[in-house]
Amino acid sequence: MMTRTAILILAALLPASRLAGQVAAHRPTGNTSALVNPVSTGRAVVKVNGAVLTDKDLRREMMNVFPYAKQHGGKFPKDSEAQIREKALKNIEFEELAYQTAMKLGMTVSATKLNNAIKEFRGQFQSEAQYQEYLKGEQKGSEEQLRNQIRRSLLIDKYLVSQIDARARCTDAQAREFYSKHPEYFTKPDSVWLQTITIAFGQTPTPAEKEEARKKAEDALRQAKTTKDYESFGMLAEKISMDDWRVMMGDHKWLHRGRMPEAVEKVVFTMERDQMSGIIDTGDSFCIARVNGREAAHLVKFDEVKTKVKEEMERRKADELRASLETRLRVNAKIEEL
Q1: In a domain, 16, yes or no
Q2: pTM to 2 decimals?
Q3: What's the rounded mean pLDDT across residues 143-147?
Q4: I need a labelling partner for 143 at 20 to 30 A (CA). Which of 94, 135, 206, 239 fits?
Q5: Do 47 and 159 lie in a common domain?
């Protein structure tokens, strides 16, 4: 739902529903060098009310913002690295402000929860040697430092849950009210389940080329007429069709109006289930279509979309609450970007 947790290497300790890409980006792997940033030196990059955050904190969050970097040697796209860095910097500033506020409010983490989190974190390593290597590289060999960082991580999460997650929850009644007021979002248009066989002739064929394509299409149609069902038509499409859908048995699944060539649309929406078209000229190919199903436009039932409606409403509300909270936390904060 949201980017959070200042010590991102500890992100796997937090509830999975709020982790987004953090677990994948920072969970220990067989390559322990991935846990140590070779280009980070521990240099201070920002002070938040006097608390120092370093380039290690920043780079970990950059990996969270753009987790694909780990697949490219920790490198970021040159054209977007500055934006990734800026977003990551704002994130770690926000998390530090959240931590400081949690401490001012006297929030605590129970010993049981902390110990369980530490145990879970250690369990991610494949061996004791790998864990010790991590401690040496990231925690200066100190388990107490690791313990403090895990406690800090959990406190941040606890504070953000109280300020954002708990307040963003959407009831069934609220979701139903939104559904009732916006039927246009939940109306499924006329749809067909379509298979096709395509004989391509390109954008600018010569008369001879188009005529040759038509002969192939006529032969394809003769063969298609001998098919009896989805499978036999699909096997023919795999054999003779000349588009990318042939590897899917010519199956386009469900398509609604506006999602197919106009010439094809005009024909298939006059057809019934299990009916096959003749040869349709799309402008750059000849198409033979088989309709496997038809659905008229209809309002999707609330129960079918309730979960997604609630999730989307909660996501939007959470984004609003987070932005509002960050604005409030920054008002009187002293933030020095170095």
Answers
A1: yes
A2: 0.62
A3: 89
A4: 94
A5: yes
